[in-house]
Amino acid sequence: xxxxxxxxxxxxxxxxxxxxxxxxxxxxxxxxxxxxxxxxxxxxxxxxxxxxxxxxxxxxxxxxxxxxxxxxxxxxxxxxxxxxxxxxxxxxxxxxxxxxxxxxxxxxxxxxxxxxxxxxxxxxxxxxxxxxxxxxxxxxxxxxxxxxxxxxxxxxxxxxxxxxxxxxxxxxxxxxxxxxxxxxxxxxxxxxxxxxxxxxxxxxxxxxxxxxxxxxxxxxxxxxxxxxxxxxxxxxxxxxxxxxxxxxxxxxxxxxxxxxxxxxxxxxxxxxxxxxxxxxxxxxxxxxxxxxxxxxxxxxxxxxxxxxxxxxxxxxxxxxxxxxxxxxxxxxxxxxxxxxxxxxxxxxxxxxxxxxxxxxxxxxxxxxxxxxxxxxxxxxxxxxxxxxxxxxxxxxxxxxxxxxxxxxxxxxxxxxxxxxxxxxxxxxxxxxxxxxxxxxxxxxxxxxxxxxxxxxxxxxxxxxx
Length: 465
What we know:
Strand order of the largest sheet: 1-4-8-9-7-6-5
Shape: globular
CATH class of the largest domain: Alpha Beta
CATH architecture of the largest domain: 2-Layer Sandwich
Number of domains: 4
Helix content: 40-55%
Oligomer: single chain
Order of helices and strands: EEEEEEEHEEEHHEEEEHHEHEEHHHHHH
């Protein structure tokens, strides 16, 4: 068969595609204690290290720099997603509705970020999912592959998608952003991770039962330590403050928002929220011997914040007249883990708290009806099959990309309460579901995957780089 001929009558050069090697992950021990894929030099050709359960990505034009993928011949898998200001070339590809972010990085940086993401995932920290690394030989940079975080929003779109159901005012939204960012930073610092570049642009947010949950996206400057010093935490917090001021000023200017709240004052409030949360989790408490009930109260407060208490240490003071109470907390997710164990549902922390409260109310109703105690596991099964699953099944298919199903259920609970208050009686689940699906959910913008507008494609917003 003849080689293709160009319009100038000369043979068109074939792309210099070298033999492909796709490896399964093999594991070696890393000094940090994490299991990580080995680094093997690639002296030519394509080497893709990818985790099972994802595409092989072999149909992508790896022989070309990422920045040229928009040109001819274009790949039909490429999609434009609203993204943040970034230092590196980032593209998004679609595989049967599953989106992946591709970020071009120098080989050592790509390998390091992949390892960090894997280790943070092992530590149950909120990060995007690391999928693999494509090594393309000596002439092209590597490409880090991560899974796009469904139903996540960059901070700018949170200001655009403000809704009465979650607080339309800018001040309220700014407050929820600060709470989410403070919680994320505290969790990272407890784990011994120094971020070095925490900002609104390097974070994605998911709705969490009226609050927000923050996810780390870009960790190029991150470092693992056995334990952070006070100086390291202070430096990380100072960088965060400066970046938050800049991010809020940018969004105020871009969207022509009111100057109140002041970005500088808002960022300073972030430090206060961080310090209060850190103190609650790490401070010692002096109690009298007859105040041992305060031990249980301290544990309940920590549980309410979403943290499990691994150990409680009680020691006497030198005088022996008072006790020193110290608690050792484990990773956040107290309500999330409890909901998962009872129902098999995976949710954000505040969503889980909301669903557990509804489950508790349902159990009380069952006990009143039966006139006897109902085991928690029995109530959980009944609630799942009689309440949760029918509610989620009622989401119209065209509206499925609006919100996560668990977030929809939480909003139905809230909607039922508002309607019952208005009518002065409990309107019931079925009426609340029908009203919400007809009147509320259609008004919400799609948030599963936020595609870029023409303006966003030029400016960029999600911080995947």
